[in-house]
Write a structure and sequence with these properties.
mainly alpha; 0% strand; flat
């Protein structure tokens, strides 16, 4: 997952190439590798597609959004650094209408200093935590050794 994130971060155009009509497509290969990892967690078959898809969408969505932000900063006139771009965005968010954008204003300061890779890992961790919590909830309760009465 980090390999895909890092590849798209280094090559912003790469994300758009994943779904190109190759046989099999790079996206299909990515889904296969990711799906095998989800399967190894013990996810039941009816939940495999949804679990793997959630992870895939997080990986591609965050990676491509991060790449788009990098391109926007680089093509901004005049060109701007990531730090300046985030500072301007943070300031703009903080100045939004407090009734309409209460949440966005609350997190505006975090926008200024966040680490894209760490935010990506947080998202993946949240999804994996949800998958494993569902597995634990679906598991039959552990029983101890039988006692004599």
């Amino acid at each position: 997952m980090l390999g895909v994130f890092d590849a798209i971060d280094a090559h912003p155009w790469a994300g758009a190439q994943l779904a190109r009509p190759f046989s099999p497509s790079p996206l299909l290969r990515l889904m296969e590798g990711l799906g095998r990892q989800v399967q190894a967690l013990g996810v039941p078959e009816p939940e495999l597609f949804g679990s793997a898809s959630a992870l895939l969408h997080c990986i591609l969505g965050v990676s491509n959004q991060n790449a788009a932000n990098a391109v926007a900063a680089a093509t901004h006139r005049p060109p701007t650094s990531r730090t300046a771009f985030l500072a301007a965005t943070s300031t703009a968010w903080a100045e939004l209408d407090p009734d309409e954008f209460a949440f966005v204003r609350t997190v505006a300061g975090q926008m200024r200093e966040h680490d894209d890779r760490e935010e990506f890992l947080t998202g993946i961790d949240l999804i994996l935590t949800g998958i494993t919590a569902r597995l634990r909830a679906a598991a039959p309760p552990a029983t101890g050794p039988a006692r004599e009465v």
